[in-house]
Amino acid sequence: MSTIPARLARSAAISGSPEEARKRVIQLYRDWYRSAPEICSLYALNVTPAYVRHCIRAHFEENRYVSDTRVIDVLIQKGRQEYQETLNCWKQLDHIMGILLAPRGRPQRTFLQKFYEGRDEDAVLPAATGIVHPKAV
C-alpha cells in the first residue's frame, strides 16, 4: 500500500456533548481495532494481532474515567495522530514495540525518589504480620 498522508487525516472537531465524544472515542477504537492485522504486517511484528488489540484496549482503558469533554477531545486528537502516523509507516519498529505495545506500569523508584516522597514501603513491615525484621534480631 502506498503512503498517502491525507488518506487518514481528519479535521479537528469539538464535541458538543458527552454522547458525541463517546461516539468519536468508539469510532477511534474501532479504527485501531480493525487495523491491528495491518499494523502487524506493515511493521513485520513478531506478535499476533490479538496482542496488538489487547494493548490498544489497555491504552483506551487508561482513560476510561475521563469525563471532561475538552480533555476527551484532546485525547481523541492525539489518538488520531498516532493512528495516522502508525498506518502511514511514519514510525519505526522501536516506536511500535516500545510505545504502543509496552506495558505502562509505575517505574521502579530509586531510594532517593522514595526518600523524597517520605516513605519506603519496601522496608516497612506491618506490625500485625508477626514477622520479625531480620535487622531487629
What order do the helices and strands come in, and which of them pair?
Elements: H1 18-34, H2 36-42, H3 49-62, H4 69-87, H5 93-100, H6 111-117
Helix pairs in contact: 1-4, 2-3
Rounded radius of gyration (Å): 21 Å
Low-confidence stretches: none
Summarize the biggest pleated sheet: none
Number of strand elements: 0
**Count the helices. How many?**
6
Distance between the termini: 69 Å
- As a percent range, the share of helical residues equals 40-55%
- The topology string of helices and strands comes to HHHHHH
Commentary on this structure:
It contains 6 helices and no strands. The chain is mainly alpha-helical.
What keyword list fits this structure?
mainly alpha
Entry summary:
By secondary structure, the chain is mainly α. It is 53% helix and 0% strand.
